[in-house]
DNA sequence: ACAGTTTCCCGTAAATGC
DNA sequence: TGCATTTACGGGAAACTG
């Protein structure tokens, strides 16, 4: 039953949410003697656990319109649903979290040619099944770790004992996440801050290793979220609310508070930079430096803006309009220069929204972010170092040796 | 097969959304000779149209726990799904919109006692089936009109030729909507404004009649929504964003612009009132009066606040913080007295949110609504009259003459 | 009690039907 | 083409379940 084979397109593990439609396509990689033969393909979900395919899962292969005459079939509107076991025995993966369980779809076909019965079977790359979008970040973590650390196409037990990643490998993957989502990766200084956050001072050694647990399971000391949950919340914030500003490279973002002060302390009064909150998920703040008549330096950071605030007022408008007020005095913007010395309107001007609304009989009204300023202690700066070079990403090179057909594409709204 | 009967609880038509669970309960109104008889009840959706019950629809009756020993059965987790007709013939109600189509659930049971076969059957009050919450307002309109204008328990053809309502009947129902949703009904002045909006000057005559079409199908002249859609958008706004302020009776709300000016013109500078937008769905604005050094009167209305703005900043905080700014001058609140003469902080003070956030290392920041004031023409006031007295609501008095059991309760998240 | 997980369902957007 | 209606599914919250 073994047949000669061809390479398939590169494949990545996917995330599928129960109850949400996904698509998969299978192609036969050799031409069969009789072309019109009705070759039915059946798609099934792995038996190991509690999901089944809700919708019609059998379809006949057909000749691709555009193509070389290959037989192929596309399953659309597939949907996964959880099986309810009445006598509570779920699968065996009790130790792993849902997003660490890897599943797979199988495709089978069987036909007889010249008295010979031929069974064809193949299966998808690993799948993570989630039931709510709130599990998506966990699912992505698994997909990233798997892609980063194994070449095995179908190692469903991967998270039983997941290998460590070197910081050099990992930092590159993290930078890609930003490139993908936001068209701009992370620079060395930003990666260095992330490395120190994850590893302490060891980060300077690029082959220092990061465990799966440290990356996405254990909480950051003193916080209620893991490193990846924190980073992903920032990716989401950028994707939904900061895209133009991020693309313009106006957000330094990943800077420790110490570094921030070191950078700002010698700058002109009113110089500021933007930094992601380390204490809360999905927040961005800005810090500006002020020098009083004695020449004493003072740093002020605004309460971080999160998605709810940013959907009321885009960041560029916040930058334009932010004012500090002291009683009875005309409010004033403390923000003059984006670090190192770019005039604010030059950095953000193109992204400002044109205020005036057209609602004639009415007086237009806008929201202005305001702070009541009080006195504040001066912080001490600390030094900082720079990170290691990136490494080329590994890619799946899926040559299926035994199988005559393979999955061509598979898509789900949760995968890119 | 006719059996003696008892009254059931009052019933109201309901709205059911496809794919969303609902519950219904049926009770047998006489005691059967043999108590332990397994009396199975089957629930079906009316055949006239395109829905079916997705979930298990047959259940045995049981003796109620608490009760007089009546047999009853409760169906939970029922769900409606639309039937797809392949050869496109849907039902016949082509002329009516979905929310005007009335449906019903039927309940049947059959048993034999002493050689006699007895069939029991009953059906629910009319149901409106919707597929998206965006149809809820339309559904409510139907339910209100039905309840208001017929005593027939199951007239599914009601909207084939819906009767008119007198303004006196309708105005009372509208006031109830506000009582139910927001704990405060409408006063005469508010109802009068609504009556004039719907009927012009005829509203003063309380038995003037309103057609179903005028109430909820035709658009208001010059607008893209019907009277009820407009009113319902305000109910929603109150429910989600204005509840405390509405309960305090600080929102006059339904005042024509003419009346508004008539009321404010002789008041002190800085007197304001709150009014719902008539030009846009779900908006609220405030208008204040200003008198310049010549004694000339000027009215200013702010661009209406809608749910998106109000979810960024609650109304009470807007009232507290709203400022008008002229270049280089300290911003000032133009709002001094809630009409007629209540100091602003007295009217809204208890509802202000305490600003200062606890985020220590950061400077707290709030959003302040600001308008850039320009010169504005002065409007001319017009007079206004007051409305008619209310009338007692009619109630369903459901005595089922032929049936031995009836529906006791039926619930769906869309019904109160 | 509680954390991890799933279910529920509104509300927006997109797709579909007429 | 435009409007009415349904479908899709993210996201917040409640319900479930060991």
Describe this protein's structure.
The structure is a homodimer of 416-residue chains. In chain A, the strands form seven sheets. Chain A has a five-stranded mixed β-sheet with strand order 16-15-14-18-19. Chain A has a four-stranded antiparallel β-sheet with strand order 6-7-2-21, with no helix packed on it. The first copy, chain A, has a four-stranded antiparallel β-sheet with strand order 5-3-9-10, with no helix packed on it. Mean pLDDT of chain A is 79; it is low at 1-12, 87-92 and 375-404. The first copy, chain A, is elongated. By secondary structure, chain A is α+β, with helices and mostly antiparallel strands. Chain A is built from nine helices and 21 strands. In chain A, strand 15 and strand 16 form a beta hairpin. In chain A, helix 2 packs across helix 5 (227-247). Chain A binds a DNA duplex (18 and 18 nucleotides) through loops.
Give the number of DSSP strands of chain A.
21
Mean pLDDT of chain A: 79
Radius of gyration of chain A: 27 Å
| Strand order, sheet with most strands of chain A | 16-15-14-18-19
Largest interface pair: A-B, 34 and 34 residues
Oligomerization: homodimer
Q: How many alpha or pi helices of chain A?
A: 9
Main location (chains A, B): cytoplasm
Family (chains A, B): Belongs to the transcription factor STAT family.
Protein name (chains A, B): Signal transducer and activator of transcription
Organism (chains A, B): Cyclopterus lumpus (Lumpsucker)
